[in-house]
Each structure stands twice: as structure tokens, then as C-alpha cells.
Amino acid sequence: MTERARDRGGLAVTWGGHSTVLIELDGARLLTDPVVHSRVGPLRRFAAPFQPRLYERVDAVLVSHLHADHAHLRSLRALGADARVIAPRGARGWLRAHGFKDVSELAAGEELEVAGVRVGATQAVHNSHRWHLGERRLWPLGVSAEPVGYLVRGSRSCYFAGDTDLFGAMSELAGTIDIALLPISGWGASVGSGHLDPERAAIAAERIAPSVAVPIHWGTLTLALRPGRPPDPARYPREFAALVAERAPAVDVRILEPGERTALDRDAQASGSAGA
Fold this sequence. Notes:
- It is built from five helices and 20 strands.
- With 276 residues, the chain is an alpha/beta fold.
- It is globular and about 45 Å long.
């Protein structure tokens, strides 16, 4: 972590791929929905390998919901059993049963402090059951924890949407967000209800009006049975950026590659670098 990222007033995000983002704010290091391995059930990573430095010295892990590509047990264990995990209300028992000792639960509207910054849970519209990933069938495990997004606030603010569809209360964030991390796709050819595609994500950007929007949840995972790299995964962020330019031209869309970092700090309104 650089001294610039430690400065009061500094906000940086590094996209690790899929829904995994390292948020650095006022010296705090928070990691969202970690997927750090090359396989998640029947899914394989085709993006560049995850960089282990992103989960070093993490103050807390923010888990948005218990789907296997967001609450990936093998990836969570890479951070150690003593890692502080913040998860949706109803998830503590499942996480503790799998060896995690320090688990805090938040429902939408609740918040707590982590390393000097405030972490609050926000509404998310997404299926709330834990499933095994499969090709033709989804196996419920009987665990239900209502999905959330997270709002991290200090001298600046970062909104991590998790997995969600559009919802009315998004507009309540308008004008208060410095960086919004918005899902725009997934690991298949399309996404259904409970998700944002490029068009719905652009509407979300219009409603939230962040200074910067970073598209996530794209270009990382695919079914292992599909050989090679999917054709042109970057079309989703390109489409998102074009739609935001039409609907919310004041929003600065920054398209990152896995491992790439972008920052806001007190010395410059916007700066970016790869892997800094």
C-alpha cells in the first residue's frame, strides 16, 4: 500500500476480477466478495490470475450474499480463519460452521466501524438462497441471508452494489458517492432478474450520480466446459460506458482490468494506474 493511499482523504479501488474489489479509504483496506482461485465449482477463471497482494493486511471482508461466486469458501479461507468478515444478517451461523470466527452481520440500514471508516449495508434486490452451482440444476442448502450492498464512508465514499437489480432507493444515494462499483454482467451469455446488465447499470449510474463509476462482475469467469476465452468480454463495459455517456455524462466511467487500480485523493480529483 502506498503512502498516497494511506493519506486522509485518499480513496482507491483495485478490481481483482468478478465482484472482488480492494477498497482503500483513509488507511482502511476492505475486500469485497473474494474469489481468488482459478475455479469456483463448474466455473473457471479466464482473466489474469488474482494477485495475492490484494488480500494482504485486509481489515475486513465484505460479503454481499451467499452465492458461491461471492461467498467462495476456499477463497475466504485464503484470508485466514481469523479474518474479520462482515456479511448479511442470517449468514453468521453458516460462516462460523465453516470455521470463520469473527463474523458481524448487517441488514440494510445498519452500519459499524472498521479501521476508522463506517461500513453500512444497503438494499440489494437479488435471490437470497445459497445454491450449489450446476449446469442443469441448482441445489438449495437451506441457508437464507438477505443480500446487501455496502456503503463505505470516511473522508470520501464508495458504494459496492453487490449483486442487485434496480431499486427505487438507489436514488437516495444521488450526489453522495465518490466511487460506485456497479455489476454489469456475469459469467454467462446474459443475466436475468436480480442482476444489472449494461443498460440497467447505466440507469443505476444515472440514479446514483457518482463522481466515478467502475464496472465490475464481468470478464472473469466462464463455464469450465467452454474451451478458451469467451469472445470479446469487454463489450459489456464498452456498452455500459456508452450508455452512461448518454444518460449521465457527468459520471466518469473507468474500465479496469483485473489487478488495475484507480484512485481519488486530496491532491487530485482523479488519478489512475495499473497495479500501483
